[in-house]
Amino acid sequence: MNDRKHVLVVSFTDLSGDSRVRRQIRMLQSRYRVTAVATGDPNMEGVSFVPIPRTVMAWPRRLSIWGNMFLRRCESLFWSNPAMEALYGRLCDVPCDVMVVNNVEGLPLAFRLREQNGAKVLLDAHEYAPKMHEHRITDRLVRNPFWRCFCHRHLSGVDAMVTVCQGLAEMYEKEFGVSCGVVTNAPFYQPLEPSRVEAGRIRMIHHGGAMHSRRMEDMIFLTDQLDERFSLDFMITPYEPRYYDRLRRMASRRPRIRFRDTVPSDEIAQTINEYDVGLYPLRPSSFNHAMALPNKIFEFIQGRLAVAIWPSPEMSRLVRQYDCGVVSEQFTVPSLAAALNGLSGEEIRTFKANSHRAAKDLCAETNRDILLGVAKELIGD
User: Is the pTM of this model over 0.85?
Assistant: First the structure.
């Protein structure tokens, strides 16, 4: 009989492509039995899977969702979905020791299950729920006030909580009075060496998803203002196809910009290792964008690249701490262009060498110790 403690990981995402939750499962799996509850199977060896039933979003259901959000009916919103009642029925007899809930939306399910199984609840909030998607007016007026109310009612009920960076942890503590740890989006350590910097040729790379809210055309305009040493490759997924096509059309008129095929997330660091600079100027157009510390910054470092960013507080704190890249003085294209144009080949070599030294600190193995420490404390093993 398997006497290892059992962890239930709940995420309302398809785990075949959710890098953060997949890492979370791998970390937990090193010590515990893991069952994943999600919309899509992670297909990870040794991990049991319980699918979340699909919900048909007909107009009466949509109207009910907006009505419950507008009236701040947190429990009604969740349990009015027949799929959630069905999911509870499948899980209520599953014994477990800890439930790891990814994003706040799964807390009503976890709290109700806790009444049956007595398990502890660990919330991975990911980003800051009350200020998601601020670029959409419906989110600012209806969704975000609902999630702020939801957090006020529910966060005090969790047994432990983590998020992706220190700034968000401090915000959760300030607004909701909860203690919040930090588990970053760093990938697992990659045993790579910095690639050679060629004289007169500086290769930049940006990878991720093509999303209009990220204003990725800024990187195209940036390249227009860089000297002839610089080129830029995009390795991006067309999350928003029309926006992706627009970027490709813009790039087609610029010979120093190329698009290349994407690769699986666990191959990113090795793939980008041939480049010199990882580029990510992110406008502070929302609170979560302003406080972002995304996976791609850590993948740049695992790829042993220099990093080039705007002065986003969380990203710039990390880049300055490890002296692994440039931070512009302002959130403008000319400011970052000036910082990059002023770099010598030797400075880029130094930044890449510093990323090499930072890679052993800024990796998932460090986060594993943090996450397992929290789980061990909750379980008491």
Answer: yes
Looking at residues 193-219, what average pLDDT do you find? 95
Q: Exposed (0-12), middle (13-18) or buried (19+): which is 57, by Cβ within 10 Å? A: exposed
In sequence order, the β-bridge partners of residue 7 are 34, 98
Q: Which fold has domain 6-186+363-379?
A: Rossmann fold (3.40.50)
> What is the tens place of the pLDDT at every residue in 29-68?
999 999 999 999 999 999 999 999 876 555 566 666 657 6
Which CATH code of 3.40.50.2000, 3.40.640.10, 3.30.1330.120, 3.30.428.10 fits the domain covering 202-358?
3.40.50.2000
- Identify which of 107, 282, 147, 156 has the alpha carbon closest to the alpha carbon of residue 211: 282
- pLDDT value of residue 1: 43
E strand residue ranges, 129-267: 160-163, 181-182, 202-209, 230-237, 257-259
Q: What is the pLDDT of residues 135-164, one digit of tens each?
A: 677 777 777 888 898 999 999 999 999 999
